């Protein structure tokens, strides 16, 4: 287990599907500090800013010396454009140590699907299996992600 992943002991659906990228559910303030101490650089938050949270995450992340990116994936309002924004954000995170999260890992896992399919030529079935192994539970989100990747000629 990497030092980055170790920082998230107890995090729902914590996984490291791409080296240096941790995915999962809502982190605690302590986990964010441990992530920074382990070399973490960026937190990409897929939660809607209106979702209830246990603490002020943007302020806590920035206070810890981490970059904070809000890219909401809102249930019932996810489109191909949402997947495009997430895919472009992931491309910018290449080589950085990042935490990608929503409340449980479901939305983040779905939005990760196009990245390995497009950028790493991973087969669709393998990308979906990976997403399911790290917290994907929504067939609807999976279909939107796969369709986005397919439209790009994968």
Structure description:
This protein is of the alpha/beta class and 154 residues long. 45% of the residues lie in helices and 13% in strands. It contains eight helices and five strands, in the order αββαβαβαβαααα. It has helices spanning 3-6, 29-37, 57-63, 80-92, 106-112, 114-119, 124-133, 139-151; strands at residues 15-18, 21-24, 42-45, 67-70, 98-101. α5 (106-112) packs antiparallel against α7 and α5 packs parallel to α8. The model has no long low-confidence stretch (mean pLDDT 96).
Calculate the terminal CA-CA distance, rounded to whole Å.
31 Å
**Integer average pLDDT:** 96
Strand fraction band? 5-15%
The proportion of residues forming helix, as a percent range, comes to 40-55%
| Oligomeric grouping of the chains | single chain
Number of helices: 8
Q: What is the count of β-strands?
A: 5
What would you call the structural class? alpha/beta
Globally, the shape reads: globular
Residue windows where pLDDT falls under 50 for at least 5 positions: none
Q: Order of strands across the widest beta sheet?
A: 1-2-5-3-4
Largest sheet: 5 strands, mixed
Radius of gyration: 14 Å
- The topology string of helices and strands comes to HEEHEHEHEHHHH
């Amino acid at each position: 287990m990497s030092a980055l992943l170790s920082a998230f002991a107890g995090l729902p659906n914590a996984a490291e599907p791409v080296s240096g990228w941790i995915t999962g559910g809502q982190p605690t303030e302590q986990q964010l500090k441990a992530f920074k101490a382990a070399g973490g650089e960026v937190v990409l938050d897929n939660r809607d800013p209106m979702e209830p949270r246990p603490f002020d995450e943007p302020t806590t992340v920035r206070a810890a010396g981490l970059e904070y990116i809000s890219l909401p994936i809102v249930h019932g309002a996810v489109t191909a454009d949402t997947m495009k924004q997430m895919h472009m954000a992931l491309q910018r995170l290449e080589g950085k140590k990042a935490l990608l999260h929503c409340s449980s890992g479901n939305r983040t896992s779905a939005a990760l699907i196009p990245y390995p399919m497009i950028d790493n030529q991973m087969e669709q079935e393998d990308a979906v299996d990976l997403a399911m192994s790290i917290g994907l539970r929504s067939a609807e989100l999976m279909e939107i992600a796969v369709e986005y990747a397919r439209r790009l000629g994968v």
